Amino acid sequence: MPNPGILCDQVLSQMRPLIESVVNEVQIRALEDSTVAVIDDRNTAANTLDALVEQAESSVHFLVPPAADAVSVVGRALGTLAGRAGEGPRVRILADPDMAGELRPARFGAPPESVEIRLAAAGVRHAAVVVDRRVALVRSPGAATGPEASLVRAPGVVRALDDIMLTAWQRAAPLAKFQRLQECLGRDSGIRILKLLSDGCTDEAAARELEMSVRTYRRRVADIMRLLDARSRFQAGVLASSMGLFLT
Asked: What DSSP string runs through 97-109?
């Protein structure tokens, strides 16, 4: 079964020629009523994002790639929810693992308890947001040389994109857990232990490789398995790989 994170990026890559062909055929340009519209200006794209999030009723789902302006753009958009009376929309941010050090719910204007952040092991290359499963804003990968973004209101396309994003979300690692695991694996040869496990090394051989006692090695393995909620050593390696922890 294809990795949902990779599948999500493939769908977004395929959306660009589809969107351009629709625009060229029916010459859609009005942002308020169009099924599909191309946005050429960065400021217009940012203002459109802010307006979409501000009008959100039930859900806001972000894809966040490793980009210099990613946190500020998302933070500005979510800031439009600040001070809203009553319960706001559920916000989910699916980000690239390279963003782990920059993403904090408190950095966004929305109430921290309403913002969930997860990291996609396969990475995130495209920026996108889906609001209330009714409208999507997709930033062009080559925004510096082409159209800045596309606003999509075609119901079938928006729902399909949201479904793929949610599938990737379910398999992604919660930010807090990812950071705890990074900290654990970053000390005392944690990554090397996982790789030795995946290679099928015996405890004795692995301990010699790491220049530690077998007792210490087994204790470290047990700690890692507990953090990963793994029932076996093999499962620990699979889970770590699926979460992108071998990339750290």
From this structure: GGGTTT--GGGSS
Q: Is the dihedral of CA 194, 122, 125, 77 positive or negative?
A: negative
Other CB atoms within a 10 A radius of the CB of residue 167 amount to 15
Q: Of 131, 185, 184, which is closest to residue 162 (Cα–Cα)?
A: 131
C-beta of residue 96 within 8 angstroms of C-beta of residue 119: yes
Give pLDDT, residue 103.
Answer: 74
Given a cut of 50, is residue 131 above it in pLDDT?
A: yes
Do 16 and 36 meet the contact criterion of CB atoms below 8 Å apart? no
Provide the 3-class DSSP secondary structure of residue 115.
Answer: strand
Q: Residues 213-229: pLDDT tens digits?
A: 999 999 988 888 887 77
Percent of the chain at pLDDT > 70 equals: 73
Q: In what order do the strands lie in the sheet with 115-119?
A: 36-39, 149-152, 135-139, 128-131, 59-64, 90-95, 115-119, 173-174
Phi, psi for residue 139 in degrees, rounded to 5? -85, 135
pLDDT of 53-100, one tens digit each?
Answer: 999 999 999 998 888 788 888 888 988 887 776 678 999 999 888 887
Sort 205 into a burial class: Cβ within 10 Å, 0-12 / 13-18 / 19+: middle
Q: From residue 235, give the alpha-carbon distance in Å to each of 115, 195, 221, 228, 239.
A: 29, 12, 12, 9, 6
- What one-character DSSP code corresponds to residue 35? S
